[in-house]
Amino acid sequence: MNDPALGRCLCGAVSFRVSGAFEHFFLCHCGRCRKDSGSVHSANLFSSTATLEWQSGEDHVTTFGLPGSRHVKCFCARCGSALPYVQPDPAALVVPAGSLDGPIHLRPEAHICFASRAEWEDDLAALPRLDGLPGQNLPPD
Fold it and tell me: Is the model's pLDDT at 132 over the cut of 90?
């Protein structure tokens, strides 16, 4: 992805622009990523060269670093949505894939920390797929 990527949080208070290419796209199953995503894994894009520019709402950006680890979560203080952050060592811009507004032209390349995956994750691909909410024929918002 060489065109600038635009993104924002769920409530729209924070918006950002990423200029430069993403080099990696990983799905991380470690317990820390499951805790801060509230889901089966986190989905993050990585770049050692791209730059991040906050377009609006930088005063709503909050960063939490887990003491004794390299684990960081950046999020909107109003709605809690995951936001990009710069990881210092090794230097990389980390962008939650779901925070981007447009298409991502890079496929996930690996499930990482897969041995730490949740016990309920196996066989998720076999579950029924619904285009809306359960019991309704309405598309999600």
Answer: no
